TrEMBL record:
This is ABC transporter related protein. The keyword ATP-binding applies. PROSITE patterns: ABC_TRANSPORTER_1, ABC_TRANSPORTER_2. It comes from Marinobacter nauticus (strain ATCC 700491 / DSM 11845 / VT8) (Marinobacter aquaeolei). GO terms for molecular function: ATP binding; ATP hydrolysis activity.
Length: 261
């Protein structure tokens, strides 16, 4: 069950965001951080894989052409969390997760559905939110419910667009642990767009760095996240140091002059 992208081009009207993007094959069980500066195309890439934007080129998952999947089939194969937080609607969290699950997994019995929902509320640590209305939740709480709506479907491909943007450190770690656990337990693949390079270093097997100008580099965090790449891609002077536990961490020191970009 691998993900392959070959010569993928995505545009809005006539303006292309990336052209001819080809990546090494992403293996089953991989947790991949998708990083890069603002407006470089992280969301566009995830939307393209999710089938929300027409593309040129080839994208296959487990040998199936993603662009040719029917919506009915795709919803079981691909879970997509968009960047905006779920709307503050007056429905309770349980109902929204239930209907997200039923829309994708109509083949599950009511008992299986309820079990999957309980499991995801427990895994994410949000049982106490189950009967709260989204309209009465904080932004971070709604983000957690949005994640539950996606993860409950247990899709073999997960595309999560900045899933921790509204979360404090405790919930950030909860979310990455849950995604890490899902990929290693089931062999699913997760692509997680993020601005947090240290979260990427800590949790991800691979990092996909998108750079202005359309270049993309995919590799292990240690291979890819170098001071040179950070200077080229983000226009910053940065160091990769080791923390007291021996893990690499990115320390961003200062912006470089605009000419670097
Ligand atoms: N609906 C749209 N119509 C036209 N252009 C768009 C649309 N959405 C995004 N773009 C443009 O496509 C480019 C890539 O945007 P995208 O949202 O993919 O970037 P991103 O890397 O996710 O950025 P950020 O880190 O700021 O969320 C940007 O130049 C943006 O202005």
């Amino acid at each position: 069950m691998t993900l392959k992208l070959q010569s993928v081009t995505a545009c809005y009207r006539n303006r292309s965001v990336f052209t001819g993007l080809t990546l090494p094959e992403i293996p089953a069980g991989a947790l991949v951080a998708v990083v890069g500066p603002n407006a470089v195309g992280k969301s566009t890439l995830l939307k393209s894989i999710a089938g929300l934007l027409p593309i040129a080129g080839t994208m296959t998952f487990a040998g199936e052409n993603l662009a040719a999947m029917t919506a009915h089939h795709r919803i079981r194969r691909v879970g997509y969390l968009p960047q905006p937080l779920p709307q503050a609607i007056p429905l309770v969290a349980y109902e929204t997760v239930f209907s997200a699950c039923r829309s994708a997994r109509g083949d599950w019995s009511r008992e299986e559905t309820e079990l999957a929902i309980e499991e995801i509320f427990d895994t994410l640590g949000i049982r106490q939110l189950a009967l709260r209305r989204l309209s009465e939740m904080s932004g971070g709480q709604r983000q957690m419910v949005g994640l539950a709506q996606v993860l409950v479907r247990q899709t073999p491909l997960m595309l999560l667009d900045e899933p921790t943007s509204a979360l404090d450190l405790h919930w950030q770690l909860n979310v990455l642990n849950a995604v890490r656990d899902a990929t290693s337990r089931t062999g699913s693949i997760a692509l997680v767009a993020s601005h947090d390079l240290n979260l990427a270093l800590r949790y991800c097997d691979q990092v996909l760095v998108l750079s202005p100008g359309g270049q993309a580099v995919l590799g292990t965090p240690a291979q890819v996240l170098t001071p040179e790449l950070l200077a080229r891609t983000y226009g910053i002077e940065a160091r990769i140091e080791q923390c007291s536990r021996g893990h690499p961490i990115v320390l961003a020191d200062r912006p470089l002059s605009a000419s670097v970009n």
